[in-house]
Amino acid sequence: MKIPFLDLKRMDSALKNSLKSKFELMLDNGIFSGGVEVQALESHISTYLNSPFSISCANGTDALELALRALEIGSGDEVIVPALTWVSTAEVVVIVGAKPVFWDTDTDGLLATDWEKAITSKTKAVMPVHLYGKMVGMEVLMAQAKKHKLYVIEDGAQSFGAFQVGKAAGTFGDVGCLSFYPTKNLGALGEAGMCLTNSVELNSRIQMLLNHGQLVRDEHELVGRNSRIDSLQAGFLNVFLERFNSFQTFRKRFAKMYIEGLTGIEELQLPSGILEEDHNAHLFVIQTARRNELKRFLLEKGIGTAVHYPNILPDTKPFRCGGDFQNARNLSQRGLSLPLNPWMNEREIECIVKTIKEFFA
Ligand SMILES: *Cc1c(COP(=O)(O)O)cnc(C)c1O
């Protein structure tokens, strides 16, 4: 049996047909920037996440950059970023002219709660990342940030659909940033992203920044750019949104099968809290000292896996800096993402469990 890590060709034909119908409809309507699909997407997401303002944009990286710019973070400022995350989180800080200050994670890859030790007189913001779909403890983090008068930009690129005590990932901070990259839980057929905020002022600043500094055509208030969402992607996302709860049901069911099947293997650490409401089961990351060996073994048996991520950012060329970052480094060396997506079936999960047991036997 060949089991790819993720194969988006496997979308079922009913879904493919809905997407084709949406494309046909949009082709007939002739609106390819802005328009009703974009408005519908923003309003659906505002309702689903209970977010007062949901501002779609070109991709998740832009969403993060727009958030920093809207908060006027730039030259001379420092922003606290976890040492293990997708590169975007740190990249945008450098792009706006500020300095990322890396801090270690906990053993799950979430910004360690003692991040306040990284605060200096230059610190303007902290960027918690809900890595693998698991939410950072936001009540504590928000209280810490408030105490030090820091902005909070949530990187919710991996956590769409996770809620903590009923409040959605991305709706705690000053701005929450989402990505609809095709492999995310809510993924487009291309690139797209979104900023969430409850601030009237930030909402209008972000809207201006992503559309040439204007709210009304030809009335430029500031220097902006074009980071508008592609309307076709908004249309496709509206189709995917209708199926989102069912996608999540599959993810949680498969995650539960993994947990039940893999519990009790001494050399293996399973992801914590993946069945809880504040985890959207984006990635199923196991940890073992024999990671590379296991990855190779699974590949020989036809099972694809991935590593998120093989390097911590302070060890990479553009962001190199000293420091220990022991938990983050451990995870980068021990973590292995197993296939987990709605396009799989139970037989495949059973096969993966059996093969992993065989490896450790
Ligand atoms: C995917 C991702 C992003 C970037 O989103 P894009 O839409 O690919 O630009 C940012 N941060 C994290 C943690 C991500 O996983």
Q: What brief labels describe this structure?
A:
single chain; about 350 residues; alpha/beta; Aspartate Aminotransferase, domain 2; Aspartate Aminotransferase, domain 1; seven-stranded mixed β-sheet; two-stranded antiparallel sheet; about 40% helix; globular; binds pyridoxal-5'-phosphate
Write the layout of secondary structure elements.
Blueprint: H1 13-29, H2 36-49, E1 53-57, H3 60-70, E2 78-82, H4 88-95, E3 99-103, E4 123-126, H5 138-147, E5 151-155, E6 163-164, E7 167-168, E8 175-179, E9 193-197, H6 200-209, H7 231-262, E10 284-287, H8 291-300, H9 326-334, E11 335-338, H10 346-360
Parallel strand pairs: 2-3, 2-4, 4-5, 5-8
Antiparallel strand pairs: 1-9, 6-7, 8-9, 10-11
Structural description of this entry:
There is one protein chain. By secondary structure, the chain is of the alpha/beta class. The protein has two domains: 8-238, Type I PLP-dependent aspartate aminotransferase-like (Major domain) (Aspartate Aminotransferase, domain 2, 3-Layer(aba) Sandwich); 244-360, Aspartate Aminotransferase, domain 1 (Alpha-Beta Complex), CATH 3.90.1150.10. The chain has helices spanning 13-29, 36-49, 60-70, 88-95, 138-147, 200-209, 231-262, 291-300, 326-334, 346-360, and strands at 53-57, 78-82, 99-103, 123-126, 151-155, 163-164, 167-168, 175-179, 193-197, 284-287, 335-338. The strands form three sheets. A seven-stranded mixed beta sheet has the order 1-9-8-5-4-2-3, sandwiched between helices. A two-stranded antiparallel ribbon has the order 6-7. Helix 7 (231-262) crosses helix 10. The protein starts with 12 loop residues before the first helix and ends with a helix. Pyridoxal-5'-phosphate binds at residues 59-61, 85-86, 88-89, 129, 155, 157-158, 179, 181, 193. Residues 59-61, 85-86, 88-89, 129, 155, 157-158, 179, 181, 193 line the site of pyridoxal-5'-phosphate (PLP).
